[in-house]
Amino acid sequence: MNIKIRNGIVVNANGGLIVEQAWLQYDKGPMVREGNVINLGEKIQLYLVIHGWQGQGDIISIGASERLTTDEGQCFLDEADLFARYETLPLKAVEKISLSAIVDNIDRLVDFFKVDFKIYSKMFPEQYLEGYYLFHI
Questions:
Q1: Between 68 and which of 33, 76, 121, 128 could a Cys-Cys bridge form, CB atoms 3.0 to 4.6 Å apart?
Q2: Confidence of residue 29 (pLDDT cuts 50, 70, 90)
């Protein structure tokens, strides 16, 4: 397997999960360049290619949390379960997952923003991955 992790993304997988690829992409198309500089109000997507999920038959129930903070600890987003509205998903569908982040407005200049994320199986709690990445405006 050819592991490709870009954009300074730090990710740790557990319970037999393997993160084959991880990268950031602007919502409108191109990949985020190294340095992770975005414009205010510009959405970025974290893309993950994950192998090893266990399900029941060909379905799985997963959750994903995401927290967006500044270098000073100011919280812009704190979502406990981004997949709460999906009771189950096809097992094949969770091999490719994307999570988004956007900062629409700031009230002070900061050095960087940090996005912490966790994606986990609700069926097999030992299966989860967690990580973070930084970006600048």
A1: 76
A2: confident
Q: What are residue 128's DSSP bridge partners?
A: 14, 120
Q: How far apart are the first and last CA of the chain?
A: 34
Please tell me the pTM assigned to this model: 0.94
Q: Quickly tell me which residue has 């923003």 as its tokens.
A: 113
Report the alpha-carbon distance of residue 125 to residue 137 in Å, rounded.
Answer: 36
Q: Write 16-20 long-range contacts (CB < 8 A, 24+).
A: 16/52, 16/54, 16/127, 17/50, 17/51, 17/52, 17/53, 17/127, 17/128, 17/129, 18/50, 18/51, 18/52, 19/48, 19/49, 19/50, 19/129, 20/49, 20/50, 20/51
Q: Dump pLDDT digits (tens) for 45-96.
A: 999 999 999 999 999 999 999 999 999 999 999 999 999 999 999 999 999 9
